[in-house]
Amino acid sequence: MRRILAISFFLIFSAVTGRGSVVIEEDMVWKGEVVVGSDLIIPSGVTLTVAPGTVVKFIPQEEPLRILVMGRLIAKGQDKRRIRFTSSSSQPRMGDWWGIEFRSSDSGSVLENCLIEYGRYGVYCLVSSPWLRGDIICQNLRSGIACINRSSPLVENCQMWGNGEEGILCKYLSRPIVRGSQIRANPYGVVVFDYSCPFLGSLKEGGDNQIYGNSLYDIYNLSPLRIQAQGNFWKESEPSQIDKRIYDDEEDGNLGEVIFASLNSLPDSVDGEGGSDQKEPGLVAVGMLDSLPRIIGRPSLPVDGKCRGGVVVKAWIDEKGRVTETRVKRSDLDGDCEVLALEFVKGWRFSPGTYQGKRVRFWTTVPIEFPGGER
Question: Are residues 232 and 190 in the same domain?
Fold first, then answer.
């Protein structure tokens, strides 16, 4: 039977002088306070277990230190006894250490109720899929969670906030599953590259994530794939406002669409704010309705000789079939002609849309062509 070495109260791994690496050669348990002064490697076949309430501190160096997990890391904290991975500095800064890197690691790694802060990355997954549950991953220089090269971590009930670039990064065919998590106050919430496809929720299996308040975009999809982000909670109340916080095929036709419309309502309070005015009734894409709605009313296209070319208008329709909001999706027109097109589509009337037999709001796109000249 493999011997398990328990380390408790206070431990310094390696000296500050001379970088080097420390390889854990047998199963080990950390307790109390652990100060790390060199890269730490957990090789395949070896498990490092971190006890609740343990504080792991990394000494800042010119080349930041990391935990490299090729075996298993089991760090299960508790609500009032979180495990903390942080800088040893009395004045910590983002990037003081590198982060926790899972690289082709053995299955079964768990980070639960951990606080991971002041790294270059919080958690970096390379061909690895650990389970992250109830973690706070904040104030890291780049990503809160980076999913690289076919990594598919399960992220449940975590918080990613205040990181320097994005809450979650997905590159090179990665497919993380994110549920019940809060992604806020980063420059970007979720960034997707290179045929990656995170699962953020569907109509059948809502994500229950809170994705809001990121300074640039809440979801930034640079992949050609469609991203599902349904059943989530958004700070904005109107679909058109949520839409503005998402970068996808509307900004670049070569990119995939982010489907955020859902049947969920916003909670009464998001991060201590909000109320009943933030409730969002059911909203689905037109293609998900029980049957395609009919156009039952449409005014004449406005006559304006200056308008020549096409525009695609995105329209939101309420439960009675009335157009409540419009937004330009793509356009060859100037601003004044775009305004005419938006007002024109606002006058349309549709038969009510239903999903599973119940009336819901839905959205659709309407192409408009202005021929120019007199009609």
Answer: yes
Give the DSSP letter of residue 96.
Answer: S
Indicate whether 323 and 273 sit together in one domain.
no
Sign of CA dihedral 226, 232, 234, 239: positive
Q: Which two tokens stand for residue 42?
A: 């957990």
Report the C-alpha gap between 253 and 338 in whole angstroms: 19
Same domain assignment for residues 113 and 259: yes
* pLDDT per residue rounded down to tens, the chain (375 residues): 444 455 544 455 554 334 578 999 999 999 999 999 999 999 999 999 999 999 999 999 999 999 999 999 999 999 899 999 999 999 999 999 999 999 999 999 999 999 999 999 999 999 999 999 999 999 999 999 999 999 999 999 999 999 999 999 999 999 999 999 999 999 999 999 999 999 999 877 889 999 999 999 999 999 999 999 988 988 877 778 888 899 998 888 899 999 887 654 434 444 444 433 333 446 788 878 889 899 999 998 887 778 888 888 999 999 999 999 998 888 888 778 899 999 999 999 999 999 888 898 888 889 988 876 443
CATH classification at residue 342: 3.30.2420
Give the tokens for residue 21.
């690496």
Is 17 part of any domain?
yes
> Does the residue 358 lie in any domain?
yes
* Distance in angstroms (rounded) separating the CA atoms of residues 79 and 231: 26
Q: How far apart are CA 151 and CA 180, in angstroms?
A: 19
Domains of the chain: total: 2
The answer to pTM > 0.85 is no
The kind and range of the H/E element at 341 are helix 335-346
Residues 345 and 313 in one domain: yes
Give which of 180, 172, 153, 44 is closest to 105, Cα–Cα.
Answer: 44
Domain boundary, last residue among 284, 299, 331: 284
